[in-house]
Amino acid sequence: MINKKIILYSLGCLLVMACGNDDEDSLDMEKPSIDMSFNNACPQNCMILYRGESFPFRAVFADNQELGNYNVEIHNNFDHHSHSTDDAECDLDPKKTPVKAFVYNQDFSIPSGKNTFEANNEIFIPEDVDTGDYHFMVRLTDKAGWQQLKAISLKIRSRN
Q1: Cα separation of 103 and 111, whole Å?
Q2: Is residue 49 part of a domain?
Q3: Domain span holding position 114
Q4: I want to staple 146 with a disulfide (CB 3.0 to 4.6 A). Which of 16, 31, 75, 119 is the partner?
Q5: In Å, how far are 81, 86, 136, 137, 150 from 156, measured between CA atoms?
Q6: Which pLDDT tens digit goes with each residue over 98-118?
């Protein structure tokens, strides 16, 4: 009787171990990528954008298995903080206190099953926001939860 219990227990353990081991090739252990270096990519580091106008956001996303979603955030850099993904240093305006800084934070979904995706969104900058230094940040998440961040510096100006 004891031998049958030990045998059944051992078989059960083997079954659990066999089913519990994921094939390492199917595990997604890589972060997705954000490409903003191609010819029509927008915005570019140190770019000047204008109040009361729209601008396109264009980037190409890729993942080794499947993309999830992305977030675009724009916030002021009036205090000269850094996100350390900028490709080049931009000349900064003097530090200042925001009065009506532009704030943008929007989530976007990517259709299921895609391992590449071209983002193409229009973003409007209100006429009455503060001019000055801003950060444009893209957060890309794949289906496995890995995230990539791209941050660039921008300026918002008035046309007149």
Answers
A1: 26
A2: yes
A3: 24-157
A4: 31
A5: 17, 17, 11, 15, 19
A6: 999 999 999 999 999 999 999
d(CA 100, CA 2): 77
pTM given for the model: 0.82
Q: What is the chain's alpha carbon radius of gyration, rounded to the nearest angstrom? A: 24
Quick: pLDDT tens for 42-63: 999 999 999 999 999 999 999 9
Rounded CA gap, 69 and 50, in Å?
Answer: 28
Using DSSP, state whether 52 is helix, strand or coil.
coil
Domain count, the chain: 1
Inside any domain, residue 13: no
Assigned domain for 146 exists: yes
Taking CA atoms, 87 is separated from 50, 83, 94, 150, in Å, by 22, 11, 21, 10
**Is 17 contained in some domain?**
no
Cα torsion 40, 48, 73, 146: sign = positive
How far apart (Å, rounded) are the C-alpha atoms in residues 119 and 22?
33
